[in-house]
Amino acid sequence: MQTENKILDDLARFAFGAAGSLGDVKTEIEARAKEAVEALAARMDLVTREEFDAVKALAAEARGQVDKLEARVAELETAIAGKKPAKKKAAKKSANAKKS
Q1: 3-state secondary structure the chain
Q2: What's the CA gap between 36 and 26, in Å, rounded?
Q3: Per-residue pLDDT of the chain (100 residues; tens, 9 = 90+)
Q4: What does the radius of gyration of the chain's CA atoms come to, in whole angstroms?
Q5: Which residues contact 55 (CB under 8 A, 6 or more apart)?
Q6: pTM of the predicted model, to two decimals?
């Protein structure tokens, strides 16, 4: 019985040590992968999240202004289109009156 306990104790220590080593390996792999991705991102000259969010906010604001201006232009075009026929008729009447 004494031998079995010693063997089990040795196996438990070995398994615990191996698990600890695997955890260290995992941490090392994650660190190296993160470094590789950061180096790749630096070479690709990517923007930061803050820069992206700032430009996105500016684009949304500009889009809102464009929508307002499009509505205003449509309103002005409608107003001009409504007045043109009246001016043409008045101009024709004036021209006809001058001819007579």
Answers
A1: CHHHHHHHHHHHHHHHHHHHHHHHHHHHHHHHHHHHHHHHHHHHCCCCHHHHHHHHHHHHHHHHHHHHHHHHHHHHHHHHHHHHHHHHHHHHHHHHHHHC
A2: 15
A3: 445 677 777 777 777 777 667 777 888 889 999 999 888 888 888 888 999 999 999 999 999 999 999 999 999 999 998 886 544 555 555 555 555 4
A4: 40
A5: 47
A6: 0.43
